[in-house]
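Rotation project, supervised by the postdoc (A.L.). Task for the rotation student: set up a whole-complex structure prediction and record inputs and outputs verbatim in this book. Inputs entered:
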Amino acid sequence: MYNLLDGLKIIEASSFVASPTAGLYCAQFGAEVIRVDQIGGGPDYHRWPVTQDNDSLYWENLNRAKKSVALDLSSPQGRELLQELVRATGQFITNFPAEGFLSHAKLAEGRADLVTVRVMGWADGAPALDYTVNNAVGYPMMTGPGPEPVNHVLPAWDLLSGAYAAFAMLAAIRKREQTGEGSEVRIPLSDVAIGTVANLGGIAEVLHNKANRPRLGNTVYGLFGRDFVTKDNVRTMIVVVTHRQWANLIQAFGLNAQVEGIEAERGVSFAKDDGLRFEHRDALYPLFERAIGLLDHAMMASKLDAAAIVHSAYRTMLDAAHDPRLVEDNPMFSASEANPSGFIYPAAGAFGTIPQMQRGDAKGAPRNGQHSEEILSTLLGLSSGEIARLIDSGIIGIAK
Amino acid sequence: MYNLLDGLKIIEASSFVASPTAGLYCAQFGAEVIRVDQIGGGPDYHRWPVTQDNDSLYWENLNRAKKSVALDLSSPQGRELLQELVRATGQFITNFPAEGFLSHAKLAEGRADLVTVRVMGWADGAPALDYTVNNAVGYPMMTGPGPEPVNHVLPAWDLLSGAYAAFAMLAAIRKREQTGEGSEVRIPLSDVAIGTVANLGGIAEVLHNKANRPRLGNTVYGLFGRDFVTKDNVRTMIVVVTHRQWANLIQAFGLNAQVEGIEAERGVSFAKDDGLRFEHRDALYPLFERAIGLLDHAMMASKLDAAAIVHSAYRTMLDAAHDPRLVEDNPMFSASEANPSGFIYPAAGAFGTIPQMQRGDAKGAPRNGQHSEEILSTLLGLSSGEIARLIDSGIIGIAK
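Outputs recorded:
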């Protein structure tokens, strides 16, 4: 928790990963993010992983530091309350459909300067998910050794869309501060995916070459980078991104003469050209396979560290969770006392660290409807009698 | 191009993906982003894919809509000019080391309200890259059919860090507008990666279960989602995220009786529980494999579309580049007339679409040093004589 966004209130009506991470990042920087859900929870409220009691460890981490209002969103009254909350704050993050009761045009009636950020599937409103846009843009056909496509496990498009949505929210607010005008920023997963392919040069590459990039397994395209296996059977990624690292790498493994031999034979120089190191990988990689296969991992690691070359052994997530450098000794993590699941473990705060400011502990996620009464009273001015009546009639939900 | 960030000037000193995408997203929203590089280009200037002339299709897409200043950053005078540019604008995006001539403390001498956003490897300053932090947090050991780890091809951590850096820049500027105080936001790839594992519930999951998640190939964890192959041999991802979609799916393939049989046999109901559909996948998936294997892709797709179920065939990137919905007919793309490579192809603009505003065409990337004279004159007030002298002495580079 940092207080960069003090004073900013955001209504979030959303589910799954993309839109909730946008709210999460804002909340971790100090915004008051109020997630409004169906009474009993939205479609992601029991998403796996879950505890024995069916409490979602996924939901409680994607919604930390937020407040929760529960409404019956299938009823006209519940929908109207959500609309009024959006109008009361002026900021809205959602993945609800662009048309319908949460359309920007409808919400902007009575709040002309509203800023809406909407994560979508396809730009035309057709549904899509991370795993389907990933297929559509071609990455699974490039991943793994082949021939079958390999899905990513990390929902990368959701995550990128979420961070971009948080950025877009602040950009649109900045514009409004200068002009008084609100706007809706629509962020389709499909555009984030194909736009990223373009940004990384992928569209230009395949149109220029009139062919797909060959499938490379764990080899990095266009430079010296791959996994190698040590004598004690540790598989490690090694990647060289500067010419100095390349010189150091050859030196570290005593391969100067052999590399010079390849350079002479092929009439090239690898010293200042990443691309050539990739192009001639058929000759280069076997040299390093042999050299690394003669060393235990500890010895290889000390050589690489001394040479300032970036490397990392493959580990499991359980290993990572127990790594002090990543988790226990990492000030980004703190104990999470207030988890709805009751399970206590290290909880993450904001990704960014600000040396000039105090980092507060990670906050817990709310239970469904935990802040219904507080928020409907403070933001909409409902009396306790009105709130009680709406609870009785099933329009408002409160935490059990 | 949208003009949300009109009037915001940012100096970017960076390379590769993460930090340049932060600048790119700001530039595509109308900020004036000035990338300062070593004369002749930084370590990413010829990164593959490249043309026959060694022009990088990667660089020219990650640096669209920016300006370029070229300086000899190995010389004290070149370094001082970069420091003065940062101080003149007050906003700085970089992946240079936290200590050294571009440390925030040094830059803030003479510009106390400076906002610096710094993408790092490890939080302690040790080097790391997307592919090595990915190993460190465990995703490659979960990806693909096993037993070997599978690297992602998409540099997801770089991209997420870049979008988060753009968000952090605007958040820190907002804070400065309220308090007058500058700050440095440090964004280590390692924290973005392990923080994301935590946000998705992964840390809680492995500590709760005291075990890693089993490796699932192309099966999505915790719900009904997997790849299936049609009669005409098209491999397609199908994912069910709502209970209505589940009911529709069974209906679409005429599997109600068979699914009820499994429910009766196992004493469960799949109607309202994603997790159970995952838990009993050994029984459910074969039903759908058979049903889908009897249909051609077109027939399967029409059934799924009618049932509002999300699906997508696996395609190559070349297929994607030729898909009118993704590229040609997509208003996010426009022709890029001003590419340094001279090759013309569809270029992407901002991921976000703002219905209330006019989207301008994607701009070209600069050539190294193209704006050196303009920027050093306007921002630092150097005379043309001084600039000429510094060009002659090799401190300032200009585009050839």
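Student's summary: Chain B touches chain A through 159 residues (CB under 8 Å).
Supervisor addendum: Chain B is about 40% helix and 15% strand.
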